[in-house]
Amino acid sequence: MTESRSKTQRWPVGRTGEISPGECRIVEIKRHSVGVFNVNGEFVAVLNVCPHELAPVCRGRVSGTTLPSPPGEYRWGRDGEILSCPWHGWEFDLLTSKALADPRVRVRRYPTEVHEDTVFVVL
Ligand code: FES
């Protein structure tokens, strides 16, 4: 009996201190380009493909977004949690993977683990 090709494995992507909050490291795993973000201390792995028109979404800017507020008031928040696609600017919540404009649209996320200061993607 052969082992299933779909079996998941842990792939090391770097030490925790090598990816600072707001930064991304892009790696190739099983022929997939994957961006690993440090979202205020939480490591989030995202397939580097935008669901809109397949741009390398992980090369986009990480920032915050405007928050719900009363008319005439401008509130900014969630710094480091929002990824903007470099092609058309769609914004994705890195913590939920959902597009801000349409939560039915998502970037694909992969689980991550940290063991002894090394960040792994489970794929
Ligand atoms: S390809 Fe990402 S927003 Fe268009």
Task: Explain what the structure shows.
The protein is an all-beta fold. The protein has a single domain (10-122), classed as Rieske Iron-sulfur Protein, CATH 2.102.10.10. Helix content is 0%, strand content 45%. The protein contains no helices and ten strands. The chain has strands at 10-15, 24-29, 32-39, 42-47, 61-66, 76-84, 91-93, 109-110, 112-115, 118-122. Strands 2-3-4-8 form a four-stranded antiparallel sheet, with no helix packed on it. Strands 1-10-9 form a three-stranded antiparallel sheet, with no helix packed on it. Strand 2 (24-29) and strand 3 form a beta hairpin. The protein is globular, with a radius of gyration of 16 Å. The mean pLDDT is 94. The protein binds FE2/S2 (inorganic) cluster. Residues 50, 52-53, 55, 57, 85, 87-88, 90 line the site of FE2/S2 (inorganic) cluster.
